[in-house]
Specification:
single chain; 2 domains; three-stranded mixed β-sheet
C-alpha cells in the first residue's frame, strides 16, 4: 500500500523470509529513509511465524515496532551500523557469527582466516562500496536442513560497477564478479589482497559442500561444489548482497593442508 510517498509492505502471501531477503528489506528501508520516504510493515499481514522470525532477528525493531525480541539458537541478530567501528565489527564476528553452536569445527589457523574474512567483508563494505547508507548483516540457523545462512548487504555501487571503475576494459557484470573473486585482485589500487575475504569464504564453502551466492548490479552468482551459474536479475539492484550457506558438519575438523589432524575427519 502506498500513500503520499509512504509505503506499507504487505506480507499476507509470504510464509517465510530468509536472511538474504531480510537484509534486502532492511536495505530498502535505509535507502528510503535517506530520502525521507516512510517505509513500514503491515503487522496485521504477518503470520505468527513471521512475527517471531522478524522480531527475533531484530528486523521489526528497525521498522519501529517494539517486537518481543528473544535470544535464540536459530536467529543471528541483525548487525547494522552507519559507520565503520572495528571493535564493533570484531565483537559481532566473534560473538554472533563464529559462536553459532553448530558452526563447523576449525583449527585455530582456519578459524583465524575465516574471522579475518568476515571482518574484511564488513570493513570493506564501509570503505570501498561507496555506500551512503549503513552496512548490515544477519543470519539464521535452519535446524532441520542443518544449514547456517549468513547474509551481508551494503548499499553502495555494487561489486561489478566498482570493478569496472577500476579495470575499465572489463565489460560484463559476470566478468567483473569473476575478477573480484580471484584471489589477490584488489580495487584499492595497491597490492594489498583486499579480495581475500570473499575468495577465502567461497573456497571454504566449496570444501564444506555449502553454497555461495553474490548479487550485485544486474547479475547473480550461485555456486556449489557441483554447479556454478550466473543469472541476470530482472531489475538492477543497488549495492551488493553476499549470501553464504554453511553446511553443519559436526564430524569434520577443517584444517589447512599440512596441519596436524588431532582427531576427526580433516578437510
Amino acid at each position: 500500500m502506498q500513500k503520499s510517498g509512504s509505503v506499507e509492505l504487505d506480507f499476507s502471501k509470504c510464509a517465510f523470509l530468509g536472511t538474504h531477503a531480510q537484509a534486502l528489506l532492511c536495505g530498502l528501508k535505509l535507502h528510503r529513509d535517506a530520502t525521507d520516504r516512510r517505509t513500514d510493515i503491515d503487522l496485521d499481514s504477518l503470520n505468527g511465524r513471521m512475527i517471531v522470525l522478524l522480531a527475533n532477528a531484530g528486523v521489526l525493531s528497525r521498522f519501529g515496532h517494539a517486537g518481543n525480541q528473544h535470544r535464540t539458537d536459530t536467529a543471528i541478530p541483525l548487525y547494522l551500523s552507519p559507520e565503520r567501528d572495528d571493535e564493533e565489527i570484531g565483537e559481532y564476528v566473534d560473538h554472533e557469527l563464529l559462536s553459532v553452536p553448530s558452526m563447523p569445527k576449525m583449527s585455530d589457523a582456519v578459524k583465524g582466516a575465516i574471522r579475518r574474512s568476515f571482518f574484511d567483508l564488513l570493513g570493506n563494505a564501509f570503505q570501498h562500496s561507496e555506500s551512503t547508507v549503513a552496512t548490515l548483516a544477519c543470519g539464521h540457523v535452519y535446524v532441520g536442513a542443518k544449514i547456517i545462512q549468513i547474509s551481508i548487504y551494503d548499499g553502495g555501487i555494487g561489486i561489478a560497477q566498482r570493478v569496472r571503475n577500476h579495470v575499465p576494459d572489463i565489460g560484463t557484470d559476470e566478468d567483473a564478479v569473476e575478477w573480484a573473486l580471484k584471489r589477490g585482485n584488489s580495487t584499492r589500487g595497491s597490492s594489498s589482497p583486499s579480495g581475500l575475504g570473499l575468495s577465502l569464504l567461497r573456497e571454504f564453502l566449496l570444501v564444506n559442500n555449502g553454497e555461495f551466492r553474490v548479487y550485485c548490479n544486474g547479475i547473480g552468482l550461485r555456486q556449489t561444489r557441483e554447479m556454478k551459474g550466473f543469472t541476470a536479475l530482472p531489475v538492477a539492484m543497488q549495492g551488493t548482497l553476499i549470501d553464504l550457506r554453511i553446511r553443519e558438519d559436526p564430524d569434520t575438523l577443517y584444517i589447512y593442508a599440512g596441519e596436524q589432524d588431532n582427531g576427526g575427519n580433516g578437510e
